C-alpha cells in the first residue's frame, strides 16, 4: 500500500474510533444528563404518554396529579387544590417548559417513573401490559396551615399585593408544615398543553417590570433579619456564660467602635425600664434595645467576640449549605466581619451584611422551641410506588444542639416577654419581631418569628413582609405578627 492511501486509511480509522468514542460517551456517560435535560422534547413526549405520580399533602389532599387529556399527549398535569397557595411546594410540570421549581423538579425522576427505585414497578407494568406510571410524593405540608398562611399573607397590610413568605415547622421533628410565598401563580396556566397559552402565561409571570411570582421567597430570597437575629445574639451571650441579668447600657445611642457614626434605639429613645442608665439582657431583649446589644457583643463577650458570634450563628444553621428539603435553598450568612467591631455591633441586631431566608428564621425559632436541639427540616415524608408500596420514609434527625436545655428555657422566657410587648399580643406565644432599614420599595422588611404553645411548643413560624403599607414604619409587630399568629392559631386552635 502506497503512503497516501495508508495515511487516508489511518485517518478514516481515527475518525471511526472518535465517532465510536463520542457515541459511547453520549449514550453511556451523558445519558442521564441528556434524559433529564428539560429541553429534551422527546423525553417530555415520552413522559406525557405515562401517568406521572401524585404530589400529596399530609392529610391526603392531592396537590398535583396527571389526568387523561384526550389528545396525543395522553396525560395532562393538573393542580386541583388551591394551586396558587401550594405553588411554592409543587412547582409546575409543563410540556412547554419542563419540570420547573418545587417538588416537580426536585423529585422529577421519581414522579416520572425513571428513578431506579421504581425498577420493579416498571418491570411489573411492562409484563402486565399497563402503561408506565410514576411514583407518588407524600409531603409534610398541612393544608390547613398552608391555606391559613397564604390567606393571611395575601390579605396582609401591604402597599399593593403583599410580597413575602411564611414558613411553619414542627419543632420536634423538622417537618415543614407550610411554605408560602406571595405573590404566587397558578401552575395550571403553565401545565396546559396549549403551547401558545403556556407561553403567554410564562411571559406574563416573568415580566421584569413586576415582582416575580415564580420566585419562592420562603427559601430562595435572602433578607436582613433585623431584630429577630437578637435571638442568635442572645444565644451567643448565653453560650459564652453570660447571665440574663448582666447589665447593659440603656442609652438612646451607642457610638460604634472606630467609627464616627452611632447606632440608635428605635425612635432614638432610651431603653424602657432602665435603672441607673442600664438594663438587664432580659429587658434589652424584651424591649429590643439596639444599643444594649451593640454593647453586649463589643464590650461584654469574653474571648474573641467575632468567633463567638459567628460560631453560634453557624450552629443555628447560618452559613450552611441546606439540604434535605429537597429543593434548592439559598445560603444564609452573617457576612464578612473581618475584625470590624462596628460591623459586629450592627450585625448583632440583624443589619449590616446579615441575610437569612424565612426557612432559616423559622429554624431559629424552632430550635429554641425544641429545647435547644436543631432538627433537620424536611418536606417529603414518604415516596411510594403507584401501587402505594412505600419506597422510602424520612425519619426526623437532629443536626446539633446550639443551646443547652437551660439556655433554651431562658430564651423562651425572654421571647414570652417580647410577645407581651408586641402590638395586640397573644398569650401562649413566644416571639421576636424585627424591623429593618427601608428597602428599595421604601418599606422596612417586617419580621415575626414565634412558636406556640410557649409551654409545650408544637409549631414554629417565621413571617417576612417586603412591602408593608406603613413604609419605613412597617414594624414587624404590626405588619408581620398578625400573619404569624393566624398561622399558629390555625394549628393549635388558639385565637
UniProtKB/TrEMBL annotation:
SUPFAM superfamilies: beta-lactamase/transpeptidase-like. It comes from the Bacteria. Pfam families: PBP_dimer_2, Transpeptidase. Residues 52-137 form the Penicillin binding protein A dimerisation domain. Residues 164-488 form the Penicillin-binding protein transpeptidase domain. InterPro entries: Beta-lactam/transpept, Beta-lactam/transpept-like, PBPA_dimer, PCN-bd_Tpept. Gene3D superfamilies: DD-peptidase/beta-lactamase superfamily, Penicillin-binding protein 2a (Domain 2). Transmembrane segments: none annotated. This is D,D-transpeptidase PbpA. It comes from Gordonia caeni.
Amino acid at each position: 500500500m502506497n503512503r497516501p492511501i495508508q495515511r487516508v486509511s489511518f485517518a478514516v480509522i481515527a475518525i471511526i474510533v472518535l465517532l465510536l468514542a463520542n457515541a459511547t460517551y453520549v449514550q453511556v456517560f451523558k445519558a442521564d444528563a441528556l434524559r433529564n435535560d428539560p429541553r429534551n422534547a422527546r423525553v417530555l413526549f415520552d413522559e406525557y404518554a405515562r401517568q406521572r405520580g401524585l404530589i400529596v399533602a399530609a392529610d391526603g389532599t392531592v396537590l398535583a396529579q396527571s389526568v387523561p387529556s384526550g389528545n396525543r399527549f395522553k396525560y395532562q398535569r393538573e393542580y386541583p387544590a388551591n394551586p396558587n397557595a401550594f405553588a411554592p411546594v409543587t412547582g409546575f410540570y409543563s410540556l412547554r417548559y419542563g419540570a420547573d421549581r418545587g417538588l416537580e423538579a426536585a423529585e422529577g425522576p421519581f414522579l416520572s417513573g425513571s428513578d431506579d427505585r421504581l425498577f420493579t414497578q416498571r418491570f411489573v407494568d411492562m409484563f402486565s401490559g399497563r402503561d408506565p406510571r410514576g411514583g407518588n410524593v407524600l409531603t409534610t405540608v398541612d393544608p390547613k396551615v398552608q391555606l391559613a398562611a397564604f390567606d393571611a399573607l395575601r390579605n396582609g397590610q401591604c402597599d399593593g399585593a403583599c410580597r413575602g413568605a411564611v414558613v411553619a415547622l414542627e419543632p420536634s421533628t423538622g417537618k415543614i408544615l407550610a411554605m408560602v410565598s406571595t405573590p404566587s401563580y397558578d401552575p395550571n396556566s403553565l401545565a396546559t398543553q396549549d403551547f401558545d397559552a403556556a407561553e403567554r402565561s410564562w411571559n406574563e409571570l416573568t415580566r421584569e417590570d413586576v415582582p416575580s411570582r415564580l420566585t419562592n421567597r420562603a427559601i430562595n430570597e435572602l433578607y436582613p433579619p433585623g431584630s429577630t437575629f437578637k435571638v442568635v445574639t442572645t444565644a451567643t451571650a448565653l453560650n459564652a456564660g453570660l447571665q440574663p441579668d448582666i447589665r447593659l447600657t440603656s442609652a438612646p445611642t451607642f457610638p460604634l467602635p472606630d467609627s464616627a457614626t452611632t447606632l440608635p434605639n428605635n425612635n432614638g429613645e432610651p431603653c424602657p425600664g432602665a435603672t441607673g442608665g442600664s438594663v438587664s439582657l432580659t429587658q434589652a431583649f424584651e424591649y429590643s434595645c439596639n444599643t444594649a446589644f451593640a454593647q453586649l457583643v463589643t464590650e461584654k463577650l469574653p474571648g474573641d467576640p467575632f468567633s463567638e458570634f459567628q460560631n453560634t450563628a453557624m450552629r443555628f444553621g447560618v452559613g450552611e449549605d441546606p439540604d434535605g428539603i429537597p429543593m434548592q435553598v439559598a445560603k444564609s450568612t452573617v457576612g464578612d466581619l473581618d475584625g470590624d467591631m462596628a460591623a459586629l455591633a450592627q450585625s448583632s441586631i440583624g443589619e449590616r451584611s446579615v441575610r437569612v431566608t424565612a426557612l432559616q428564621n423559622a429554624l431559629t425559632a424552632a430550635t429554641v422551641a425544641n429545647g435547644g436541639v436543631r432538627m433537620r427540616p424536611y418536606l417529603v415524608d414518604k415516596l411510594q410506588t403507584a401501587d402505594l408500596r412505600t419506597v422510602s420514609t424520612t425519619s426526623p434527625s437532629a443536626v446539633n444542639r446550639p443551646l443547652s436545655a437551660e439556655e433554651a428555657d431562658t430564651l423562651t422566657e425572654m421571647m414570652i416577654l417580647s410577645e407581651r410587648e408586641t402590638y395586640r399580643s397573644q398569650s401562649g406565644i413566644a416571639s421576636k419581631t424585627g424591623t429593618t432599614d427601608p428597602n428599595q420599595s421604601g418599606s422596612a422588611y417586617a419580621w415575626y418569628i414565634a412558636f406556640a404553645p410557649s409551654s409545650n411548643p408544637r409549631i414554629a413560624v417565621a413571617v417576612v413582609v417586603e412591602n408593608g403599607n406603613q413604609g419605613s414604619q412597617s414594624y414587624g409587630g404590626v405588619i408581620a405578627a398578625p400573619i404569624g399568629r393566624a398561622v399558629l392559631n390555625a394549628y393549635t386552635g388558639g385565637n
